[in-house]
Design goal:
single chain, alpha/beta, D-Maltodextrin-Binding Protein, domain 2, 3-stranded parallel β-sheet, 40% helix
Length: 298
């Protein structure tokens, strides 16, 4: 009967041993295929059954990429600790996901590497003054927008500039490649662009331009420095607002949902509005509007 069905005879014949080895090989191959079905295409080695949220809860720690050179949003304080509005936000999200603010590890990131760190699995989440743009959404997912910044202007207090229109025909310092350069040029300003902020601030102090057009959130931090706050200010309303979001790996749906819930809860409590006051950031209409919208949604 066994031979008619194509199965090997009982006993220890060479053919029987060959079959057993072949059968074992096929079984292993099938097992590997079944395991592979659970693997996603995500960089960082996530699985569909576990995902980032599962990994975070299993290790009981979340790794978040943050800025360390962007006061007052993300910087290193005098005691060597991470501090700033976004660090407070990161701690809040950590507590919502894991029950304690202490279960977080901060990894320093900059604009040039924050998305790559996320894609490579070096961080679970990015909270690093990151503008939510259509181009970036092609490679990562974004959370609910939690903050917004625009283009501000740093000028001397005695400059006499009272509106953006007053800058027509005047030289304004900027950063090469910034999205706002085209808009400001079309408004009649003579943009003098530099590769980095250090060069722009130096040119501004030397009088090579009347003002420095840059992220208003960064200028807020600069004005916290005594040597700048004495003679300089940012009197004009910011223009060209851009929303910020938290970066999450593509397709990590459950993690994205939980992060969004934490953000909406945080906003409904007025957490960011209070954080602006704590870090001496001029109150923004955006934060107030998000708070009111979150309260209604809740």
């Amino acid at each position: 009967m066994f031979r008619k069905q194509g199965l090997p005879p009982r006993g220890g014949s060479v053919n029987h041993l060959f079959f057993l080895r072949k059968y074992k090989f096929v079984s292993i191959a099938i097992s590997l295929m079944l395991i592979a079905i659970g693997i996603t295409g995500c960089e960082g080695g996530e699985t569909t059954t576990q995902g980032t949220l599962g990994k975070i809860k299993e290790r009981d720690k979340i790794v978040i990429g943050v800025k360390t050179d962007y006061a007052p949003f993300g910087f290193i304080d005098k005691n060597g600790n991470n501090a700033g509005l976004e660090i407070d936000v990161a701690n809040y999200v950590t507590k919502e996901l894991l029950g304690s603010e202490g279960k977080v590890e901060f990894v320093p990131v900059v604009a040039a590497n924050r998305i790559e760190f996320l894609k490579q699995g070096k961080v679970d989440l990015v909270i690093a003054t990151m503008t939510d743009t259509p181009e970036r959404r092609k490679v990562i997912d974004f959370s609910e927008n939690y903050y917004s910044s625009g283009t501000g202007l740093l000028i001397r207090k005695n400059s006499g500039i009272k509106s953006w229109d007053d800058l027509k025909g005047k030289k304004v310092c900027g950063i090469q490649g910034s999205f706002y350069n085209k808009e400001l040029t079309e408004r009649g300003m003579q943009m003098v662009n530099f590769p980095g902020t250090a060069e722009a601030y130096k040119a501004l102090q030397e009088g090579r331009c009347v003002g420095f057009a840059y992220d208003d959130s960064a200028l807020v931090g600069k004005l916290l420095e005594p040597n700048w706050s004495k003679d300089w200010h940012q009197p004009l309303p910011a223009i060209l607002p851009q929303p910020w979001g938290m970066g999450i790996r593509k397709g990590d749906t459950k993690f994205l949902e939980d992060v969004n819930q934490a953000i909406l809860k945080m906003e409904a409590e007025g957490f960011i509005v209070a954080a602006e006051k704590k870090w001496k950031i001029p109150p923004t209409d955006y934060a107030k509007q998000r708070m009111e919208q979150a309260k209604k949604a809740k």
